[in-house]
Specification:
Blueprint lengths: L15 E2 L4 E4 L6 E2 L8 H9 L7 H17 L5 E5 L7 H6 L4 E5 L14 E7 L8 H11 E10 L20 E2 L2 H11 L2 E6 L2 E5 L3
């Protein structure tokens, strides 16, 4: 088995197990991931996402503002961006477009236009999506390649806590990749990125020029 983020060969035993799944930890990049044997089918995964209620109400917009507000402080106008994993009810684009930015949407289930992954952007956002990735290394490297020199990558995902077994994040069976703070540092070092902002679940980094 190889780590799905850094591709390091994994020889360790299980990091944690519950009554539903096993969890493996990579010592190199500190990602904790669920083995492929426990993945949902695409139909099961899609049905689970259809249950999400993402609408532009005050509560959800306030949740997204954790990423939107620091990102807007950094972005120059006008900027062209991609909201990767925009979901069944896109809302982040509303906050960014209200400030003059152009935001395209991509979601494997709800906005599956592969041409949007072949373009270049001033910024890319990934809010509460990287934990769903079966191949995080492949996908994140591809997104990084879509960002123009000097551009911005903004990611929001809940970081691994000390008490992994009691963590609510692992109760969602569509969550398969779990990022430690050290995992984010690994990615930034790999990409040569500069950390511009980090607070709780939000990381914003700049691509070298």
């Amino acid at each position: 088995m190889n780590c799905p983020l850094c591709f390091q060969k994994i020889s360790d035993t299980i990091f944690y197990t519950d009554k539903h799944r096993d969890y493996i930890r990579c010592k190199k990049c500190c990602l904790v991931f669920v083995p492929e044997a426990f993945f949902l089918s695409k139909e099961e995964e899609h049905a689970r996402y259809d249950m999400h209620i993402n609408k532009a109400d005050k509560g959800y917009l306030n949740f997204l503002s954790q990423l939107a507000e620091p990102l807007l402080d950094i972005l120059d106008k006008p900027s062209k961006g991609l909201d990767f994993g925009s979901g069944p009810g896109p809302c982040l684009n509303i906050l960014l477009e209200a400030k003059g930015h152009d935001v395209s949407l991509y979601d494997i289930f709800y906005a599956n236009d592969s041409s949007r992954l072949e373009q270049s952007y001033d910024f890319i956002t990934a809010t509460e999506v990287v934990e769903h990735l079966y191949e995080p290394g492949k996908v994140l490297d591809a997104l990084w390649g879509c960002i123009r020199p000097g551009g911005i990558f903004a990611i929001m995902t809940q970081p691994i806590p000390e008490e992994f077994g009691a963590w609510w994040y692992i109760k969602d069976n569509t969550h398969v990749s779990f990022f430690h703070e050290d995992t984010m540092h690994f990615l930034m070092k790999k990409w040569g990125a500069t950390e511009l902002y980090h607070e709780k679940a939000v990381w914003i980094m700049r691509k070298p020029t």
